[in-house]
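Researcher: Let's do a round of design. I'm pasting the C-alpha cells now; please hold your answer until I've finished.
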C-alpha cells in the first residue's frame, strides 16, 4: 500500500552541510571618540535634596515615561545583520553566553524557589506538620531481626 503524498518538510528540518566558502567578516568596530571639553561639565551640578520616594513608587511609577532620544538604535543594519547571523548559524554570539546562562538559571530555579518558600512558610507560620509514615510495631520488629 502506497502512502499518500505529503507536503515537503519545513526548511528547518532539512539537513544542512558545511560549505567550503569563508564566512563574511564581522563588521568593523566603531572607533572611540573622546568627548570635547565643551560637552563635559567642569563641576558637578548640585541638585536640591528631594524627599526619597518609596521602593514601590520608584518601581511602579504612574507617570508616563518617554524614552530618551539616544535610545533609538543608531545603526539598524547592524542589528538586522546580527539577527540574521543568529538565524543562519543557530547560536548566539559568545559574548551573550554568561547572560543567557543567568537567565536560564533564573527560569529553572524560580518555580522551585516559589514552591519551596510556600511550603516552608506553611510549616513555620501556619503550623503544618511534615507527614510521618505510620509504622506497625509487629512488622518493624520482624524486619529488624533478619
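Researcher: That's everything. Go ahead.
Model: Designed sequence:
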Amino acid at each position: 500500500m502506497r502512502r499518500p503524498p505529503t507536503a515537503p518538510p519545513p526548511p528547518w528540518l532539512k539537513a544542512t552541510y558545511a560549505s567550503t566558502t569563508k564566512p563574511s567578516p564581522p563588521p568593523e568596530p566603531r572607533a572611540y571618540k573622546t568627548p570635547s571639553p565643551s560637552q563635559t561639565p567642569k563641576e558637578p551640578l548640585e541638585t536640591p535634596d528631594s524627599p526619597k520616594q518609596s521602593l514601590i513608587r520608584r518601581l511602579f511609577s504612574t507617570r508616563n515615561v518617554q524614552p530618551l532620544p539616544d535610545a533609538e538604535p543608531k545603526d539598524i543594519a547592524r542589528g538586522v545583520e546580527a539577527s540574521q547571523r543568529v538565524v543562519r548559524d543557530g547560536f548566539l554570539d559568545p559574548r551573550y553566553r554568561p547572560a543567557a546562562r543567568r537567565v536560564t538559571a533564573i527560569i529553572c530555579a524560580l518555580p522551585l524557589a516559589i514552591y519551596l518558600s510556600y511550603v516552608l512558610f506553611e510549616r513555620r507560620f501556619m503550623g503544618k506538620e511534615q507527614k510521618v509514615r505510620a509504622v506497625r510495631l509487629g512488622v518493624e520488629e520482624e524486619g529488624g531481626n533478619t
